Amino acid sequence: MRYSLLVRLFIILLVYLGLFYFGGQTGQKILYPLRILVTFLHELGHALGAIFTGGEVRNLQINPDGSGFAMTAGGNRSIILMGGYLGSAIFGNLLFLIAARAKPLIKPTLILLVFGMIYAAIVWYTSPFASFFLIGFSISVILVMWLTNFEREVLMFFGLASILYIIQDFNVGPSSDLQKYAELMVIFPAQVWMYIWLIIALALFLWNIKIILKLERNNSADTLEI
After folding, report:
1. How many domains is the chain built from?
2. Which end of the chain is less crowded, N or C, counting CB atoms within 10 A of the terminal residue's CB?
């Protein structure tokens, strides 16, 4: 049992990378819901950036091709723009960390994720596709919690896949946000901000891994002492 967490992480990583790089069209279809989930987390980051800085969210859009937008009013524009890419990086790392090290919080986290998707689908409605996906994905998560014991693996897969996807997609996904951000923060061009955001996302992931491995070593030492 000492290496159960590391083995679980390794298997999830192999599954994701195998589907992404060697799964062909079938692999892309299997990963498609996760791609849309990452888009949701990205736009949710924009939305929360607006709410936390005194603004409001008018609507939240997710498109079938994986693109999307959040229409906001008021708030701090620079934080709202950063909230997309860096927000989704934080969400992914948080999901991953909870799944790995906070077992009692796994179900509440999945329930909170479901609530957020349903809220966005109804209150921030913009299109049938977005609402259909968010509600359908929520139902799938509820069924997993109700019918199986794989909540931990599912949440870990969500978190890890989200982290890897935004790292792989860093030079494409946040391009429009980067351009707008560079217009506000003129100290650097968009290309430089792109790598700054990527470094922050990578640093969060490595910090997350360090925490998990440290806690794993501490638990192993405690077990040996007993």
Report:
1. 1
2. C
Helix (H, G, I), strand (E, B) or coil at 187: coil
Sorted by sequence, the CB contacts under 8 Å of residue 39 that are 6+ apart come out as 62, 63, 66, 67, 68
Q: Is residue 179 part of a domain?
A: yes
Q: Which amino acid is at 135?
A: I
* The pLDDT value given to residue 197: 86
Choose among 126, 203, 159, 149: nearest CA to 13.
159
In the chain, count H helices and then E strands: 8, 2
Tell me how many degrees the CA angle 136-97-201 measures, rounded to the nearest 5: 90
CA separation, residue 119 to residues 57, 60, 108, 132, 156 (Å): 12, 11, 16, 12, 23
Residue 49 lies in a domain: yes
Instruction: Give the pTM.
Output: 0.87
* 25 within some domain: no
